[in-house]
Amino acid sequence: MRYEAVIGLEVHAQMMTDTKIFCGCSTKFGSEPNTQTCQICIGMPGVLPMLNEKALEFTIRTGLAMKCRISDYSRFARKNYFYPDLPKGYQISQYENPICEGGYIEIVVAGEVKRVGITRIHMEEDAGKNIHEGTGNFSYVDLNRAGVPLMEIVSEPDIRTPQEAAEYMKKLRTILRYLGVCDGNMEQGSLRCDANVSVRPAGRKEYGTRAEVKNINSFRFVEKAIDYEIKRQIGVIEEGGEIVQETRLWDSTKGITESMRTKEEAHDYRYFPEPDLVPIVADRSWIEEIRASLPELPDAKRQRFVSEFGLPEYDAELLTTEKPVAEWFEEAVHSGGQPKAVSNWMMGDLMKLLNEGNKSIDECPMKPMQLAKMLKLIGSCTISGKIAKTVFEEMYKTGEDPEVIVKEKGLLQISDESAIEKAIDDVIAKHPKEVERFRAGEEKLLGFFVGQVMKTTKGKANPQMLNEMLKKKLA
Amino acid sequence: MELHGLGISELSHLLKKGEVSAREVLESVYSRIEAVEDRIKAYVSLTRDEAHEMAEKAERDISSGLGKVLSGIPIAVKDNMCTRRILTTCSSRILHNFIPPYESTVTAKLLDNGYVLAGKTNLDEFAMGSSTENSGFHTTRNPWDTERIPGGSSGGSAAAVAADECIAALGSDTGGSIRQPASLCGVVGLKPTYGRVSRYGLVAFASSLDQIGPITKNVTDSAILLNIISGMDRLDATSAPVAVPDFMSVLGMDIKGLKLGIPKEYFIEGMDPEVNASVKEAIRKFESLGADTVEVSLPHTGYAVATYYVLATSEASSNLARYDGVKYGFRTEGRDLMDMYMRSRAQGFGAEVKRRIMLGTYALSSGYYDAYYKKAQQVRTLIKTDFENAFNDVDLIVTPTSPTPAFKLGEKTADPLQMYLADIFTISVNLAGVPGISLPCGFTSDNLPIGLQLIAKHFDEETLLKASYAYEQSTGWHKRKPSL
């Protein structure tokens, strides 16, 4: 039998606010345990939360970018459960009346655009971290992360394949990074993904029983974990078994999901409206201000790169995945670089060098203007395309202007006819046998002569002139 | 009269004129504490050393002309308000060793105004109770009859004020916890409008109902303290952005033509006849002062106690989750995490607190939420609407504060429901969020104080205080002192 999977994702995104959601503590990652805490985020008696307006703004920003409705009336709720990393014994979250509802994200799968609905986006506080390793018989609690603002972005069950899920996550990450609300780092936990997965016989309308897969802590595992879970569920059904509603943990070393708790063991979180915070009635004009301040989003940018710069879809997609890359590209083009040439250099040499050095484009010493200048030097035959590779690498290393590099390294192209002629004559004189074979019809030897001349001129001979002159001389 | 027997305004006057020193005032209060505290047990902890430092500072301020309203005035603070570097227990074993590294907003405001902290007063554990018998440490006695309870949960504060073991006090009121003990101890207790006073640093019992207020020897002192503690606070999102008037300015104003509503639902069978008679007499006194009285109806009154015990316990079950033995306070080691949680909470909390946590946990549970919590929220709205409707016709509502005078120690401890009914007249006020005050309005034949409750519309403490002052000045019940 053929099966179809139904997948919905719940994504937690840590917001890049400077301070926590309900107090003034720093959100910086990686500090000494419990150094970024105060009486509020460690839940001492009598303290009260105050909403960080930036967190609200970031969530509304995200909601608007994903075409959500921003609620006229939204409120916080308490989610009650006991755990040492949850200092108050409840998490302040949203339950009824989330701030954003009913949006969507578009992904491209096999060349087709597909819309994945966004059910809701809500705000909540992160928990701390329990530390069990290297602590002997004890566990320790680090509350630096407690109170860091999170957005929970819940998708509709519109996703059908592990590939779509991966595309959705990538797109989500791209949008969040464009908006500057989340750094999207899954490995560091600033972006987390839980997947609700069920399967049903292809063509059936009703959903199957779902399992929630947690702990998918890397982009690589989104596809793998869901793929595993789908196959597991199909396997259970094929063997005549039944899927139980449960929470499962993805184990990346074993590459499998394992049952964590069944529906019967599920917590009763006893949600109720948070009485310490007043309902949010976001000012409409403020929402419009936020809307007006939204950056051009990746889809729009990609389409513009195609229409305005005549780039192929593939180039446009690649260049717009990261906003700083897209901006780098545009700056190079605005500095006079021919768009496709800029794209080629960026997607080829630049990306290779950045990847090798494990650097982001912001850390690239070469400026877009310099790439544009280099392209001009090629266009004016001041340097050859081959020499340009050397110039490019040097620019990348030093951040020096291409003209300076060409001058200092003596890389100027030789376009002087007599100089090239002399070099050709020398080569012909040294290789009489090859000349004979060429004249006898072995035309592929032209490459050999080009190579020899380039060798003596250290690659600087104008290749076009060299080709033409060589052909004449050998004729 | 000795210094400890005076109120804030009289003492403040003497201090400013240099007729007495802050140290003398403190010594007087402490000599009184030494004389009677054994019998009253109003305090959980006395802060003599801190008080001395504060009194010395007050003296320096006064002598250099920087004296403030409360400079040199010893004030007692209910032990559920956080005081920096000073033990704050909520009269619970689970916080027996808790010393907050921060100051509550109200006590910070008292500090800014030069107060001297006399000590932290006893309460029913986490403010849950009406007799102070639920304290995890000891029971406070009523200064008028030490065989009787002082009321609760701010029983320590009310008893300390009544016994002159301080000049004034702060209490907190979730369902009557300021007004009922004030009534039973013969002092003035004011619960401001919800949102009038910041709750930051008040250890939460039921967040949507809790409010801090003054317990004082007279109405003037109530106005003085309310002036100081009121106002929006950037640390409390539920504190209201409402301007704070000068509450002193209304004292002494005429109350001719003021319309008082008498809710028929509050004069019920089973009410103590002496209480009934005293309150009726007080109403006639208001009429003689020129006020008009009219019967009003608060039709949902009968649901108030049930509504309150669903909502307050629901919030409490969540508010008290943080006392888990992990971070501070009492911990019992266990086999594993769950065992540690269970032992710490089982041993750290008293019976009434555990009862309420269980009630609230149940009311919020999946499958019961709609029938209990949600329904109670709907009834709360109806109760609030009752008051709004009544206040379309009247300026104030007059009721007894408590259906009976102070009852005997142990009289109701075996029957929680009887204990809950002690707050039958005060609970609606918290549900509606309106302000209420309890004033002494007479004594029983056994010489036990009787209290009168006045209720005003949201943020109209001015009318409340104006009428209270007029009544107080024309009767003088507040001048009576217990013989200790």
Structure write-up:
The complex is a heterodimer of chains A (475) and B (484). Chain A has 15 helices and 14 strands. Chain A folds into 3 domains: 3-290, no CATH class; 296-408, no CATH class; 417-474, Orthogonal Bundle (Arc Repressor Mutant, subunit A), CATH 1.10.10.410. Chain A has helices at residues 53-65, 162-179, 219-238, 284-292, 298-309, 313-320, 323-334, 339-357, 368-379, 385-398, 402-408, 417-430, 432-439, 446-456, 463-474, and strands spanning 3-14, 69-70, 77-80, 90-93, 100-109, 112-125, 129-131, 140-142, 149-155, 191-201, 211-216, 246-251, 256-262, 272-273. With 475 residues, chain A is of the alpha+beta class. Helix content of chain A is 40%, strand content 19%. Chain A has a 9-stranded mixed β-sheet. In chain A, strands 4-3-14 form a 3-stranded antiparallel β-sheet, with no helix packed on it. Chain A has a two-stranded antiparallel ribbon with strand order 7-8. With 484 residues, chain B is α/β, with parallel strands linked by helices. Chain B has a domain at 3-256 and 464-479: Amidase signature (AS) enzymes. Helix content of chain B is 39%, strand content 13%. Chain B has 15 helices and 11 strands. Chain B has helices at residues 8-17, 22-40, 48-63, 105-112, 155-162, 179-185, 219-229, 273-288, 304-319, 337-348, 351-364, 370-393, 416-420, 427-432, 461-475, and strands at 43-46, 74-78, 116-121, 168-173, 188-191, 211-216, 259-263, 292-296, 396-400, 436-443, 449-456. An 11-stranded mixed β-sheet of chain B has the order 1-3-2-4-6-5-10-11-9-7-8, sandwiched between helices. In chain B, helix 4 (105-112) links the parallel strand 2 and strand 3 (116-121). Chain B starts with 7 loop residues before the first helix and ends in a 9-residue tail after the last helix. The mean pLDDT of chain B is 97. Classes of the chains: A alpha+beta (475), B alpha/beta (484). Chains A and B meet through loops of A and helix 9 of B.
